Amino acid sequence: MPVRNFSIIAHIDHGKSTLADRLLQATRAVSDREARDQLLDSMDLERERGITIKASAVTVNHHYDGEDYQLNFIDTPGHVDFAYEVSRALTACEGAVLVVDAAQGVEAQTVANAYLAVENNLELIPVVNKIDLPAADPDRVAMEIEQVLGLPAEDCIYCSAKTGQGIQELLDAICKRFESPRPSQIEQSRSLVFDSHYDDYRGVIVYVRNFDGGLKTGDRIRMMSTGRTWTITELGRYTPRPEKVKSLGHGEVGYLVAAIKTIDDVRVGDTITLELDPAEEPLPGYEEPQQMVFCDFYPATADGGSGKKGEFEALREAIEKLRLNDSSFTYEVQHSEALGFGFRCGFLGLLHMEIVQERLEREGGVEIVQTAPTVTYRVKTTSEETIEIHNPADLPDPSQIIDILEPIVKIEVICPEESIGELMRLCDGRRGEFRGQVYISDNRQMLTWEIPLAEIIYDFYDKLKSITRGYGTMDYELIDFRADRLSKVSILVNGEAVEALSLICHKNLAEQRSRSILKKLRKQIDRHQFEIALQAAIGGKIIARESIKAVRKNVTAKCYGGDVSRKRKLLEKQKAGKKRMKTVGSVNIPQEAFLSILEQNE
Amino acid sequence: MGSRIQLAQCTPDQAKVPDVEPGGISSFLAPTTPVEGLYVHVPFCRHRCHYCDFFTIAGREDAFDAYVDRLKSEIRASASCIQGPLQTVFIGGGTPTILPPKLLAEVLQEIRSALPVASDCEWSVEANPETVTPEIAAALADGGVTRVSLGAQSFQPERLKALERRHDPATVERSLQRLRSAGIDELSLDLIFAIPGQTLAQWESDLDIAVGLGIRHLSAYSLIYEQGTPLTRRRDRGEVAPIPEDLEAAMFEHAIRRLDAEGMRHYEVSNWAIPGSECRHNLLYWRNQDWWPIGPGASGHVQGIRWKNVPRLGLYLEGQGLPPVTRPEQLDEDGRIGEAFMMGLRLLQGIPVQRLESLLACGDRSGARRRAIEGHVADGHLIMDAVSLRFTPRGLMVADSIMVDLL
Ligand SMILES: Nc1nc2c(ncn2[C@@H]2O[C@H](COP(=O)(O)OP(=O)(O)OP(=O)(O)O)[C@@H](O)[C@H]2O)c(=O)[nH]1
Ligand code: SF4
Ligand SMILES: [Mg+2]
């Protein structure tokens, strides 16, 4: 049976998952009765947020031109944080369906994902989706696709993943326009691992795309990067129900189970070959994902961060378990004076960070205190070393620092013309360097800046959205590390520096930023029975200050009709709340305060 | 049943008493117990105020007859548990005076005939101004009521509206007159301060009006944003702005000064009285003495055990005799000591030294408590002398923060 392997790629929310639903329905893989929205988004979190986080691979059959085709396709995430999932998916395919919203047109991740596909030598089928919308303007969007991506407008397929219009035409085009898997280049068997996930009962489930030869149940396989071997106990495909098969033929996509206990035994991007007749060279893999954003997770303990063993261990277990399914975040044990034992974690981006936190709390049942995210800095020291720092608290003494380098990203923003002026001002204020401007359509442009990552990880995206009234979209990519006039700002509470609150910041912005942080802290810390001084300092120099006045009244004395237990419980709650704080000097700082520097509204 | 021995060992968490078992509490107590007070709960109101989290129901006038029958059955059943003499009877709510005069009289009569009431017993009833008709005043007086506490809350129509209280401020004075002419002299007003939108001047005027009415007792509570009330949800949604803490403090301080100048003694955090007119029933609470609860939602304390009748009207009406109770709670020694501090310090005369010494002598946290007390004495929040341990004026303002350390 001829095989077609492709991915569905698009800007976030342009309808990939819904289109995947229609493909499943149109090919009768899912009966109308079973159909539900975004069927492939199986994680609770995905369904709640309506976004795809993990790519998923499915197999369906389609009859075209007198022949039955096996279509293997991968629905991918659209959010920029998960670009790495997209590139993994693309290496397993010959083609990509590029979905563009007929009302919104080409957006930042449309461009970014299309380029990724082109870099991987994939055939592209542009699809203009959501043509049922009243605001749909498919012809204009097809022109944009031609203008920006160089794909002829007449090659676009118009469809609606909602009504099903155009789906048959798309299925036919997939069979006709995408290429078959390339013929085997060697006699030995080679399959690429493009994803994996952990199943409580069966161990690691490995998603593979075969390139040379094939695989069958009972085969003794070898992972080429580690040399470790296993025996395949099960092979199958998702249709989208898992369906066991005896073998995976040449060029096919499926999953395998081989009693693999931990996900660390499986490197995504690795090549699987046969133990008895191994290939000499692995298939080209892909780059490890790069963590861009770092923050600390601490257990939200009732004992004020003294780091009670039980809660820390529970957090460790939750992290280790989640890592089984998401190898794209990193973690290492961290100790903070203020918050006790926890983990410093690295993420692909802010959304990724948020999602990991939510999954830990939801699936791992732990409560987390998270510190403000920072980026990686490279510090050149007087001893001619370059050290990487993920935490301002780790900065060496200023006398040993020659330079602090920070990550620079290239951002591409697509936005309506009228917002350009205000966007320029936003980027200027964030130390961005303007790099260029491309015309997309009558009233939309694509602008490029180089800008420090640290300047966009907090609230840049929200600002962009509000300036463009929701129409602006953006993509970013790490390009460099550059030196700038950066320094460490310490936050002092009643004269004592609180490391967990310190930050690295550009000298010109330090004062303004410190002031806004102190203002937030002031709101977070309850009044005490004495006045509290809050200060920000660079080196020994105080650059901002605030104070919290002493408490004036904290007494409530209702009678509660003799319900004494009630009053006692209320006070006990106050007492427990007090414990959940970190005491610096004699000031109780609530754990949330450590996050308050997260949002920065200037 | 040997249950007393069991109890001595149980901590709140282990107390294995089903949440709802009619009469369950009697198996926990000695056959009869000396009880000083009686609290009767009447869980009905005309309208549910949005700040209120008491157990009370609006719009159930149809249930009044059945309710009073049921109360009487409970009063009779509790007779076998209570060894008097009762020094105080307190009928609270809700709004007890929402009951028709005839029913109110029946309740008072039942208590008097079924229970061992002392001859000089204090009989208090809570009332809302709009409910005090001449007939109600007469029913109370004829039933032997000696004291009425009137929920005036404020004299500013705008502030009453902010509280969702529906009476006309002028009814307060009229109600007091009716009660006096019926022969009830121990009259108290409840006021609320720190109401959204309230100014210091408005509060001063409320106090001026109150003292001008010739009352003998006054309770002034700051508005509390109780969890789960509509008011609190409105605050959380930003629709209602609590007044600034400094203003609230100034209001409290003003009340202390103003009432003192009027000869009303500040005897408990929120209560003032002309000497001799203190509420004896509430003093029972603060002194950790024993009282028996009647009616759904009422809480009691006997022999170191605290419990509450299940606050559900339907369930209550279905049964007879002693009602189902929620899980009784008996604190361990440390918990009881903490509670004694929490309640005792609310009285401005404080905890007498002998009692203080005995409290500090036992319990595993006695060292920690002693240190906390010394710290607060050094900070000027507490005074400890040959007479008692008590708050300083400054300490009183932050009493909750200090009690937390002694709990
Ligand atoms: N009217 C209309 N709505 C559509 C169509 N296709 C998708 N949608 C809606 O668009 C929204 C986003 O669809 P998804 O399929 O979740 O988009 P996605 O591209 O998978 O999103 P991510 O996985 O988050 O990148 C949903 O509310 C869909 O119901 C369409 O053809 N017409
Ligand atoms: S009148 Fe009193 S008990 Fe009734 S609802 Fe209002 S505040 Fe609550
Ligand atoms: Mg999706």
Q: What does this entry look like structurally?
A:
- The complex is a heterodimer of chains A (602) and B (407).
- Chain A has 602 residues and is of the alpha+beta class.
- Chain A has 5 domains: 3-177, P-loop containing nucleotide triphosphate hydrolases (Rossmann fold, 3-Layer(aba) Sandwich), CATH 3.40.50.300; 190-274, Elongation Factor Tu (Ef-tu), domain 3 (Beta Barrel), CATH 2.40.30; 293-369, Elongation Factor G (Translational Gtpase), domain 3 (Alpha-Beta Plaits, 2-Layer Sandwich); 378-483, Alpha-Beta Plaits; 487-598, Alpha-Beta Plaits, CATH 3.30.70.
- In chain A, 25% of the residues lie in helices and 34% in strands.
- Chain A is built from 14 helices and 33 strands.
- An 8-stranded antiparallel sheet of chain A has the order 11-10-16-7-8-15-12-13. In chain A, strands 2-3-1-4-5-6 form a 6-stranded mixed sheet, sandwiched between helices.
- In chain A, helix 7 (309-323) packs across helix 8 (350-363).
- Chain B folds into 2 domains: 20-329, Transcription Regulator spoIIAA, CATH 3.30.750.200; 332-406, Orthogonal Bundle (Arc Repressor Mutant, subunit A), CATH 1.10.10.
- In chain B, a hairpin with a 2-residue loop joins strand 11 and strand 12.
- Chain B has 407 residues and is an alpha/beta fold.
- Chain B has a 9-stranded mixed sheet, sandwiched between helices. In chain B, strands 14-15-16 form a 3-stranded antiparallel sheet, with no helix packed on it.
- Mean pLDDT of chain B is 89; it is low at 1-18.
- Chain A binds chain B through residues 527, 529, 551-568, 571-572, 574-575, 578, and chain B through 39, 41, 54, 92, 219, 221-222, 224, 245-246, 248-249, 252, 268-270, 282, 285, 291, 293, 297-301, 306, 308, 329, 338-339, 342-343, 346, 379, 381, 396-401, 403-404, 407.
- The complex binds guanosine-5'-triphosphate, iron/sulfur cluster and magnesium ion.
- Residues 45, 48-49, 52, 54, 56, 93-95, 128, 151 of chain B line the site of iron/sulfur cluster (SF4).
- Guanosine-5'-triphosphate binds at residues 10, 12-18, 38, 50-52, 77-78, 129-130, 132-133, 160-162 of chain A.
